[in-house]
Amino acid sequence: MKSRKKLIKLSKVFGIILIAWLVFAQSCVQFRIADSKAKKQFADKGVTLFTENVTVDGFNMHYAKTGNDTFPTLLLCMVRPVAGMHLRNT
Question: Residues 26, 10, 3, CA angle at the centre, nearest 5°?
Fold first, then answer.
């Protein structure tokens, strides 16, 4: 009986933590903004933002470039969840 009460209490605590994390995580998520809005935000800070769409091996890719060309390149890859279905056999 004691172990059952502990299990119920632990389940409640876990449930509260899970709900709190879901609420917090959703408040932190920001989806991609329009290129024009991003360019304006960068321009307001005195930074030029260059964006372009290219096709590589039949895949459309959107990229943004900014900063000093003498610094090392930082590449961040972001993929839509459904894109994995297209890439699974490549």
Answer: 165
Query: Could you tell me the pTM of the whole model?
Result: 0.49
What is the residue-level pLDDT of the chain in tens, covering all 90 positions? 678 888 888 899 999 999 988 887 776 666 678 889 989 999 999 989 999 888 888 878 888 888 888 888 888 776 655 555 555 555
Return the bridge partners of 53, or none: 62
Cα torsion 13, 15, 21, 23: sign: negative
CA of 74: how far to CAs of 4, 46, 63, 67, 77, in Å?
51, 20, 12, 10, 10
